[in-house]
Specification:
60s Ribosomal Protein L30, Chain: A, 12 helices, 14 strands, ten-stranded mixed β-sheet, alpha/beta, Rossmann fold, 2 domains
Length: 337
């Protein structure tokens, strides 16, 4: 559980030990094809400060994965006809491995669950993992993708997949503390290649995970406290995430506006704004970020964090996670932001 002081000291008589820095453990779990691809992408970027775990029902896919910890989940006597679009089967495959999953989650302070909704494994298994995390009092964030949109003439078949995905999303919403549903590419980008579309999703997931890891594990990060972060995310429900980078003049304002434009933070109950920059960050830039946020959502509880990263150079990145939105509106109204 993320709780308690960031530093602790032990007193034995008149002897005081060196303060111990509390470093939370973040476990990133990819489930099914989409989740495994995201974990591979994160691994290739060389991200540190997180433990990568891959879970799938396909042993061959796991052999090709770069995660250091892996788990294969199956259910005996599954009929082939029952596998596709059957939420009970997808849920049961993970539920039958609860003991192993519980062991994998043990020791974590935060769990990030990544899965594609609409697929055979991740659609039900993601919610099982979030459920186990809740039982263990581990803060959990689920990041899921939706089936790519198809023309109406093809929906007679794929409509089942979309309904299957929605049911999986609803289950994740019930059990995860925070749920992020990545938006599909807009209609005007219909000519984007399928591999490029998947890569874009993996990149967004990486930005979120790396920003979170940097925020929590970087000793130069500035944030109220880890308990503040838990307060924002605990049982916060449907959330949205946006990230953007800018450089040179007005970089803070431009990056914030772009991040908000990708997120739509109006009506958010809580907002985490993480500013990532090298040591050149100015007080005036912090003001610009907060002013942009207040213009778009003036009734939200806002936690502002700063992460110093010398590799940013002249660039400044703003990542925003906004929580407390209505999931039904997103699923049924076409609200993709």
């Amino acid at each position: 559980m993320i709780a308690g002081p960031d530093r602790a000291e032990v007193v034995h008589g008149s002897t005081v030990t060196e303060p111990v820095k509390f470093v939370p453990t973040i476990k990133v779990i990819g489930i099914g094809k989409c989740g495994l691809e995201a974990v591979n992408y994160i691994s290739k970027q060389g991200l540190t400060g997180v433990e990568l775990i891959a879970i799938d029902s396909d042993a061959e896919a796991l052999r090709r994965n770069h995660a250091t910890t892996q788990l294969i989940i199956t259910q005996a006597n599954i009929q082939e006809r029952a596998i596709r679009f059957d939420l009970d089967v997808s849920f049961a495959m993970a539920a039958n491995s609860r003991a192993q999953i519980k062991e994998l989650l043990s020791g974590a302070d935060m769990v990030v669950v990544i899965a594609g909704m609409g697929g055979t494994t991740g659609t039900g298994a993601a919610s099982v993992i979030a459920q186990i995390a809740r039982e263990l009092k581990i803060l959990s964030i689920a990041i899921v993708t939706q089936p790519l949109p198809l023309p109406n003439r093809l929906r007679a078949y794929e409509g089942n997949r979309e309904r299957f995905a929605r049911e999986g999303i609803k289950l994740c919403h019930i059990y995860a503390d925070a749920l992020i549903v990545l938006p599909n590419p807009p209609i005007e980008e219909a000519e984007t290649s399928v591999p490029e579309s998947y890569k874009r999703a993996d990149s967004l997931i990486y930005q979120f995970v790396s920003g979170l890891a940097g925020l929590i594990n970087n000793q130069d990060s500035i944030i109220g406290s880890l308990s503040d972060l838990r307060l924002l995310l605990f049982r916060s429900g449907f959330a949205k995430f946006g990230s953007a980078t800018a450089t040179r003049r007005h970089r803070a304002r431009i990056a914030t506006e772009l991040a908000i434009g990708n997120t739509d933070i109006s009506n958010a109950k809580g907002i985490l704004a993480n500013i990532i920059s090298d040591g050149s960050l100015k007080l005036s830039e912090l003001t610009e970020v907060m002013e942009c946020i207040q213009l778009n959502s003036d009734n939200s509880k806002v936690i502002q964090a700063i992460t110093y990263d010398e590799s940013m150079g002249d660039e400044l990145r703003v990542t925003i996670m906004a929580t407390g939105f209505n999931l039904s509106r997103h699923l049924y109204s076409g609200d993709s932001k």
